Amino acid sequence: MRPSGRQADEMRPIQIIRSYTKHAEGSVLIRLGD
């Protein structure tokens, strides 16, 4: 067991935020983990 409670075979959560910056067309922010 890891400190985060995630199992060894469990993937970290992924979050994709579209239009992250106002003036860059096609910008995204990808977050992995906490």
Structure description:
By secondary structure, this protein is mainly beta. The chain has one domain. The protein is built from no helices and two strands. It has a two-stranded antiparallel ribbon with strand order 1-2. It is rod-shaped, with a radius of gyration of 14 Å.
Radius of gyration, Cα only, in angstroms? Answer: 14 Å
What is the H/E string? EE
What characterizes the major β-sheet?
2 strands, antiparallel
Q: How many domains, in number, for the residues?
A: 1
In terms of DSSP E residues, the strand content is 25-35%
Number of strands: 2
Report the uncertain regions: none
| Structural class by sheet pairing and helices | mainly beta
Instruction: Round the mean pLDDT to the nearest integer and report it.
Output: 90
Protein name: Exoribonuclease, phosphorolytic domain protein 1 domain protein
Topology:
Blueprint (H helix, E strand, L loop, with lengths): L13 E5 L9 E5 L2
Antiparallel strand pairs: 1-2
Give the key terms.
two-stranded antiparallel sheet; 0% helix; 2 strands; rod-shaped; 34 residues; mainly beta
Short description:
The chain is an all-beta fold. It is 0% helix and 29% strand.
